[in-house]
Input
Amino acid sequence: MSQPTTLPAQIVADTIIRTVELGVRIVDAAVAGEITVLWCELLVEGPGRCPGCGIAGTYRDTSERRVSDVPVVGHPLELRVQVPRYECRHDGCARAIFAHDTSRLARPGASTTRRCARFILRRLMLDKSTVAAAARELGRSWDTVNDIAVAATSELLLTAGPARLDGVEVIGVDEHKWAHVRTAEADGFVTVITDLTAVVAG
Ligand SMILES: [Zn+2]
Output
């Protein structure tokens, strides 16, 4: 029998959370009520390049970017990522200060990691979960989760193109009262078109 190998705690944590997908490394963790908080460092190779002129910046300070990640053991997960900031000292560049690129972690300005979009689509489409349930799991608002779902679905449809309709022979069309859009400017109804090919084929 092989002997168990002792691994540094950081490797264990990074492996479980698969931080390699996010471009970060876990440095500390805490349980904050319902939420699990992970403090992370951004993995960088040298100073960041100015988005204005493309020249490497001079380190200034570190800021913290907070984003929700996919839940772990049923609890919302918040990442607090230390992000280096730089000064651009290039003459003629309009950019004075900029943060290191974190686009692998999350879209600019987003409050959730990129892989949250995948998580949300899987919960809504495959598990038939509600937006409210996915929002609760992530610890984010209904609107945030709905916005992510709409954006990710649009992207998916554009990527798939008309080929996504290959094999569709029977469709069902229905009108649904959509309670969440009960506003003055919206009538609150959506038209739902469903692929019934598999259902009709038994
Ligand atoms: Zn610059």
